[in-house]
């Protein structure tokens, strides 16, 4: 069995704030190749004081575009988030699973909504 790899988010993003898409992408790009090799990953949010949904969408949500829910559940462990932030992550994951089940449909609906707003 492959050894679990630990990723310390605060070290990777260089601080305690998980608030930008760019920093979320750093986490995603570190996790993605490990999951492709079926390596278990522990994502530690120790010393991260704030996360927002944008960051979590990019860091973790987009994993559901490349892997099944079962694969992510089996290989990814998240620790160090407060109770409120774990609820936010659950919301992000639920939305990601819905989106990646039908991305073309969601994109088309978003485009339709955006063009109605412009009128």
Query: In this structure, how is the largest beta sheet organized?
Result: 3 strands, parallel
Overall radius of gyration: 15 Å
**Molecular shape:** globular
Work out the helicity level: 55-70%
Question: How does this structure look, described?
Answer:
It comes from Nitrosomonas eutropha (strain DSM 101675 / C91 / Nm57). There is one protein chain. The chain has 119 residues and is of the alpha/beta class. The chain has one domain. It contains 6 helices and 5 strands; from the N terminus they run βαβαββααβαα. A 3-stranded parallel β-sheet has the order 1-3-5. The chain has a two-stranded parallel ribbon with strand order 2-4. Helix 2 packs parallel to helix 3. It is globular, with a radius of gyration of 15 Å. The mean pLDDT is 94.
Summarize the structure in short.
With 119 residues, the protein is of the alpha/beta class. The chain has helices spanning 9-13, 21-36, 53-59, 69-75, 83-101, 103-118, and strands at residues 5-8, 17-18, 41-44, 50-51, 76-79.
Note the main attributes of this structure:
119 residues; alpha/beta; three-stranded parallel sheet; two-stranded parallel sheet; 6 helices; 5 strands
Can you lay out the helices and strands and say which pair or pack?
Blueprint: E1 5-8, H1 9-13, E2 17-18, H2 21-36, E3 41-44, E4 50-51, H3 53-59, H4 69-75, E5 76-79, H5 83-101, H6 103-118
Parallel strand pairs: 1-3, 2-4, 3-5
Helix pairs in contact: 2-3
């Amino acid at each position: 069995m492959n050894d679990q790899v630990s990723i310390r988010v605060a070290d990777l993003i260089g601080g305690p704030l998980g608030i930008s898409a760019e920093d979320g992408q750093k986490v995603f790009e570190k996790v993605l190749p490990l999951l492709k090799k079926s390596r278990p990953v522990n994502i530690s949010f120790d010393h991260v004081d704030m996360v927002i949904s944008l960051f979590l969408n990019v860091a973790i949500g987009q994993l559901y575009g490349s892997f099944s829910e079962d694969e992510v559940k089996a290989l990814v462990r998240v620790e160090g988030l407060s109770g409120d932030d774990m609820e936010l992550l659950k919301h992000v994951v639920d939305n990601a699973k819905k989106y990646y089940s039908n991305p073309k449909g969601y994109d088309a609906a978003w485009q339709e909504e955006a063009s109605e707003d412009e009128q």
